[in-house]
Structure formats: C-alpha cells, structure tokens
Specification:
Largest interface: A-B, 60 and 74 residues
Number of domains of chain A: 1
Strand order of the largest sheet of chain A: 2-1-3-4-8-7-13-9
Radius of gyration of chain A: 21 Å
Distance between the termini of chain B: 45 Å
CATH topology of the largest domain in chain B: Pyruvate-ferredoxin Oxidoreductase, domain 3
CATH architecture of the largest domain in chain B: 3-Layer(aba) Sandwich
Largest sheet of chain B: 8 strands, mixed
CATH class of chain A: Alpha Beta
Oligomer: heterodimer
Number of domains of chain B: 4
Number of strands of chain A: 13
Chain lengths: 342, 605
Amino acid sequence: MSTTTNLNIIGLPRDVYKGLPTTLCAGCGHNSITNHLVKALYDFGAQPHRLAKMSGIGCSSKTPAYFVEQAHGFNGLHGRMPSAATGAKLANRDLLVLGISGDGDTASIGLGQFCHMIRRNVDCTYIIENNGCYGLTKGQFSATADAGSKQKNGKINDYAAIDLCGLAIELGATFVARSFSGDGKQLVPLLQAAFAHKGAAVLDVVSPCVTFNDHVGSTKSYAYVKEHDFALHAPDFIMHGKEIEVDYEPGTVQSIELEDGSHVLLRKLHGDYDPTNVMGALGTIHEARERGELVTGLLYVDTKETDLCEREHLSETPLAQLREEDLRLSREEFAKLTTPLA
Amino acid sequence: MPLRRINDFTIRVATVNGSGSQSSNLVLSNAIFRLGIPVAPKNVFPSNIEGLPTWYDIRVTPKGYQCRTREVDVLVALDAQTWREDVAGVKAGGMIVHESTYPVSGETQRDDVTYFAVPFLEMGKKNFPNADLRKYLINMIYVGVVAELLGIDETTVDEAVRTQFRSKPAAVETNMNAVRLGVGYAREHLPKQETFRVERMSGKTEGLLFLDGNRAAALGCIMGGCTVAAWYPITPSSSLCEAFITLAEKYRVDPQTGEKRVAVVQAEDELAAAGIVFGAGWAGARAMTSTSGPGLSLMAEYSGFGYFAEIPGVIFDVQRAGPSTGLPTRTMQGDVAFAYALSHGDTKHIVLLPATVEEAYAFGMEAFDLAERFQTPVFVLSDLDLGMNSWMSRPLQYPEKPFDRGKVLTAQDLAKLDSWGRYRDIDGDGIPYRTLPGTHHENAGFFTRGTGHDEQARYSEDPQTWQRNLDRLTRKHETARQRVPQPIAEEANCSVGIIAYGTTHHAVVEARDILRDDGLGLDYLRVRALPLSPAVADFIERHERVYVAEQNRDGQLYGIMRAELPAHLIARLHSIRHYDGVPIDAHAIAEPIQAAELEPAVVTD
C-alpha cells in the first residue's frame, strides 16, 4: 500500500491507532482483540488525545500499550482499574475511557470494584479478555474457568465459573455483550456500539491462552469455543448520521439507537432474542450454560439509564479544567462563613 | 471558705451516649466562650450508638490552655452505670450535680465535695410528654442548672442555643424552655455556690473561632480547589467528608443550572476511594479522600502506585487509636511512621502534621499545591482530638495565592518542544513534567505504569534505569524537605529542648509553663511536616538534650529522627510517649522532664 492510505471520519490513518509491538505469546487471543480494537477505534473515529486506555495487571492489562500509542495509558493495580477509571472520568468527562481487564483481574481480585463500577454506571468500555486462567503466573485456574475443565497439568477445576455477563446484568449493567477473540466480524461492531453507549459497557471476550489453556479438556480453547459458540445475532454498527441500509428480510433485524444517535443493527440468527429484555437475557445465559454453549452477541442493553456524570449533574466543563474563580469561595462568602461566633 | 476558682476549672458531664448530650455540652462550651473565657472541650465517647457511658470535659481556663486536664472540678452525673467511678474522679473541693435518685452513701458519699441533687428524670417526665424528645431535653435541663450555679446569664445561653440549632430554628424555643426549667429549679431548690464561677473577661477570645478540625480541613479542601472527593465512612474522619459535602452543596452548585463543580463518591472501600483519587489526579483534577488508620491500611496499595507513577492525590488521615480496629473513638498519633513509608518497596511520602484548627484548614488547602507540585500523594495527619473536638482558633486566612498546578505541559508547550520525557529530570529538583489526558497534541500521551520505567515512561528492567529512577525520586523527596511547612521554633537559649507535633503541641504549651514555674526553661520546636526540615537537626545541634513528645507507644517520630539524623544528634534525643487513647495532658510531658532534669535521675528512651 502507498502512503495515500485511507483516512477515517476524523481524517486519521489507521496507523495512528496502532501501538507498540505486542510482547504476548504468538497466537494469544488478546492480540486478536487488540487488532479488533484498532479497527473499531479507527472505524469509530476515536480521537486519540481523548482516549484514556486503562488497565489492571495481567496479560490482558499489558495490551493498552499495543494500540493507539499517542493516547494516554494507565496500567494500574491488579483488579483496581475500575476505581481509577471512575476517578478519571469524573475528572474529565470528555475522555473516552477504555478499560482492559482479564478474568483474574475482574472476577477474582477486582470483583468488588467491577461490581461498583457497574452499579455507578461509569461511562466507559470495559473489556474482559477472558481466558479462564492466570497466564502471567503460568496457568493457574481463574474464577471464570468452568467446573470440570482441565488445566494443562491435568488438574480438574471443581468450582463453578463466575459468569461475568450474568453478574453484570444482575447488577444493572446497561450494556453487556459476550464475544470471541477470533470473531472480529462480531466483535468490531460490538466494540463500536460500546464506545457509543453512555454508561458502563461490559464486553466479556473469550480469548484463548495458547500457552496454558488451549488443550483438550479446556472450555476456553479455540477448538472448544468454535464448536460451542452460539451467536444470537450478527451485529452491525451504523455511525450517527449515516443512513441505515437494511437488506435483510423484514423482522429479522433489530435496530437499537444508542445515546449518540448511532445504531447497532442486530441481524437475528436464533429465534426472537430481544436484548432490551433483562429476564430474557438472564434466561438465555442460563439456558445456554445448561446446554454447554457459549452464547455470544449483545446480551443486554439499556439506553435510558443515566451515567454517573449525568446523575451527579457534573458541569459540562471537565472538573480538571476548572479554575480558582470557579472553585474558591468569594472573599465575601468566606468572611461570612468564618465570622467568629457565626 | 474554699479557694474561689473564677474561670479556672473543669466540668465533666457523664451521660449515656445517644442521648444528645453532645448538643448540650456544646451549648455550655459555647456559652462560656461567648463570655470571653477560653474553653477547651474534650469529648471522650464510646464506639457505640446508644446506651454506653460517655464523658465530656469542658476545661475553662483563663490562660487559654487547649489540652486536656486530668482534674475534674465540677461533675454533672447523669449516668447511673458510672456514678461510683464518676464521684471518685472529682477533685477534693469539687462539686457534683447529679440525678437525685442516685444513692449518696458509702463510696459515693464524700465529705470533701458538695452535692447538688436535681430530679432530672422526674422533671423530664412531668414536663416533656413526648418520650422521644425527653432524653434530649433532660440534657438541656442540666445546661440550665449548671449555668445558674456557675453564673452564666440566660441571654448568653440563649445565643449559644441559637448557634447550636441554627439549622433548625424551630428547636430553639423547646430547648430554651428546658434550659429555663433547670435555671428555675436551681434558683428555687439549690444552695448558692461561690467556689466555681464564670465571670465575663476580655482579651482572650476576641476574634477567635470555635471550630473542629474536620470542618476546617473540609473548608481547606474547598478553597484548595478539590473537585473530586471519594470516601468510605470511618470514625473519626467521616465528619470531614460530610462537611465537605455540605460546603460543596452550598458553594459548588450553579444556582441556575444545578450543575456541580464537584464530584463526591462514597466508594465501596478505602482502596477504591484511593483509586478514584489517583485516577482523578492523573486526569488533572484535585482529588482527596479522608480516612483513619484501618482505611489507610487499605490505601497502601494505591499510595505506593501514586508515589511510583507520580500522581497527585491528597489523603487525610484523622488518626484514631490502633493497631487494628483499636479504639475507634479514641485518639492517637499512631500512623506517622506508617503513612511516611506507606506501601511496599522503598517509598517516602510527604506528610503534613497540623496541630491547630487553623493549620487543619491551611494544610488542607496547601496539600493540593504540594501534591501537584511534587506529583505525589500528600498525607494530612490530623487526629480524633483535633478533628472531632471544638477548638478556639484564630481566624482562617483567605488564600492570597493562586493554585500551584505544578509542572504540567500544555498543547502549546508541546508545540515548542521536539520531545519530552515524562520522567526526565530537567530542572535538577527530581520533579519531572507531566501532561494530562485530553491534551490535544500528538506527543502528549504517555503510558503511566506501576512497573519499572525509563525517562520516556517505557517499560524497563534495566538495572541502571531502575536505580536512576529511584534516585530521582529521592532527589524529589529532598526537594520537598525545604518546601513543606517548616517547623516553628520558640527558643530562649535554653540547654534543653522539646520537639513535638500535631495536637501534642497543646500539652507542650502548658508543660513549658509548669516547668518554667519549676525554674526549668525549655526551648521548643514544633515539627509540621515530613520529610524533616533541616531546621530539626539545627535545633538539636543547639541543645544538650531534646525531648521528643508524641502520642504513640513506639515513639514514631523519634524513630524517624533516629533513622535520618546524624549519629551525634541521636544520643541527645529522649522519647516521651503517651498512648492511653485520651488526649495527652501537660503532666504526661512535664513529669518525665521534671524527673530527669530536676532530680539526679536517668531517663531512658
């Protein structure tokens, strides 16, 4: 390709959305997710300077270094990214906060912060790169490993998996999706919809660990997921202002308008799944689990609920940009407040 | 005829907690303060909501001493559970106002005190049909009784009641009626007493405020431009954030649009509160959290991150008695060493040590400047005594300086630079430059991390790079030594000195007077921050012996001094420690010094 590359809607080439070379294992599902993120951010027209890439600790949490090198990154503490993301968003509500976590980071050490970020509906995209194991410490089970699944050394997991999507919906999450690192066609539109959503958008992306959890007996291997993936729909993301062209059979597509005027189109693959129905979403997750299937797609979305910054009536000007005259009491107010014996 | 004690005695009110006696005691304190007489109230309360014994000491002192005293002259006894020990605690010659059904016999019958029996419960039943209000109003009866016995006029009490109930004016009359019942009973049924009296005075309290440290610190946060506050409720710090919320609701909300220029989050725990603070600090807001010891333990993880990734944030620690859950409602200076080195690895923090309400305000404000100037967590270590008790204070000063936002590169700055390095020390002071997320320039971004990094914020495991970075952080800490609030010295060429910090100051003030009366002059240096100023070593250099007084078991500041000062100075230090959970009094300092300096005895540390 020549240097006259294509530019996205804000006039930037795709290279701007790339980052440093990955240091993860060759074939790691996380690298695929990074590539899908690059495409999604490019397609979405994200402004690099407004992007806050935040993460915790683990293989997944290294990945913010591998995309949009220009953007600010925050590789924080194990399981504690949601609180930092909350603070960053409150400080500057203009930021597009993108959190990258893993299953250890979210489902074990960070479960509390994950829950409370959802409860507050912090406007961010929260991706869990879920491989069912601790890669960086060499393959121990995580809390999302399915009961009965086998570790590389032959150990069987006795404990039930925490289903992060089911949990998120139960906690009142306003955008919950599940996908697979190997399915860019599904993941890229879901990511864009998550960026457009105002509120906490949780994406649980199964992402095989090729080094420690890609063997027979693992339920997070490439082979297992490909065989058991049960996609609810094939999503498309339509940017605000673009005309929606529907060439599907009437009644086979559900269009959901997101808060910024963009749309996510869900071409139905199975039945009449309605992602705005919370009971239906929970039921579908439970039923799929009983059948041993991994249900993927946009599981639940609520575009009505207000996000944290709105609920707190934060000023349009980011708090970080306010100055003395906005923040201090006037001399008169101060004198009145601190008058002796007042 | 006993010695008359005009404006110089201590009242102890013994009640059960949850009965609203705090309001009554504040009314009494405030009324005496309004007469121009210095008061120092100390609330010694249980970690409980209702039904356990609680004591409130109001020290009335013409000299204006603000520390606790061990002596009780006037007892108001309204707790049957503690009646015996309360009677025993009164100094000979004292007076006891008590519920008339309490037995005065055996142990409780003393011939060196005067009893004033009042049928509080009966009067309550008779006059206050509303059982819910009764227990509160009974407490206002004793305000009336005590006011009449001590000679506080009704107008002054009325003003104090109005101050206390300024947010609910409807309660003023109900409470004043209860006060008048007490006054009336005392006039009609109790003998006059002339031993303990208050008389209006002047020259001591004019222009002074009567305020608790937590509210002062909250005002400091507002004036310091704090826009993000995250907290988890914990005694004794909760009232700091609650006062911040009250002020923010009044002064940070646009009256037209309802838009807020502040965000307050009650977090799921203290670690998350710290995470919100450093996330906000990273993104450019001035952010704070307030906590106490147990919360500080949880914040260790993020504090180390803030230190190493170099992110501003302010953490108030209103210290209580530890270790562990300890005594949640008792005071201590027990977190000094912990806060100074909070988190694993080599960490050294900036720690401010306010002693007064004025400093709680001023340091509360300055902490934000220091945090942004040094791009690091700043700890403000108050304690329960300063935070929750009301103190006389000099007026708070309106800030004359703009915020110091530190070394922040804007898009315009970046346009003039070919390159920059987030952790590069350009100025030799150890403080690098940073950019804020949202800065519209292609070179603005960098990768903040708690892992090893080079000057460009890139991951690095290189030994030299790692050590170079740690050395720069030390350089930054050394720069802070001169920039943090410097010690205050009071010297008169004495050969013996004393060093103290925080609320221990108030006991030192009185202890120096006691020792002066014994013929022993004591020079004084009050440390106001860590890292230690070079002035500390200079002070010790000028003295043969220096006592270090503090409110913890292990002599924590003494330990820090031993670790950091030259060896020849360490031998001059002698540690004085107080750690029973109640605020230190003057004798806890004067007695060991008397023993060592006035008699041929050896004090060991």
